[in-house]
What we know:
Shape: globular
Order of helices and strands: HHHEHHEH
Number of strands: 2
Number of helices: 6
Strand content: 5-15%
Largest sheet: 2 strands, parallel
Radius of gyration: 17 Å
Strand order of the largest sheet: 1-2
Structural class: mainly alpha
Distance between the termini: 45 Å
Amino acid sequence: xxxxxxxxxxxxxxxxxxxxxxxxxxxxxxxxxxxxxxxxxxxxxxxxxxxxxxxxxxxxxxxxxxxxxxxxxxxxxxxxxxxxxxxxxxxxxxxxxxxxxxxxxxxxxxxxxxxxxxxxxxxxxxxxxxxxxxxxxxxxx
Length: 141
């Protein structure tokens, strides 16, 4: 099955489960989609497992050259431990595309920024929010 068909099918199933109805679109983060697709792969859905492999392997290389923005990528310590090479690949691709990108691993667990989470880290969150506001001020000026 071609990757495009797998992706379309996976998004349809994902949206059906996340929306009140299959016709009600809902914007979701790539993280949410990846969690869903990972669960599908664990349940034995081989095409979705292949899709995740392709996305993880090729997405940064395909998407970054077409982008025209500045970026702040705040990485949680535990996410970096799972895939420590990702930040380096992203840094290299952003540099190759001559795009401004601040990529930093924060000393905090995934989900550290919202104050109502169990892993909230005030110092790391304030730094991340400050960096994001600085990016917005510069990029949207």
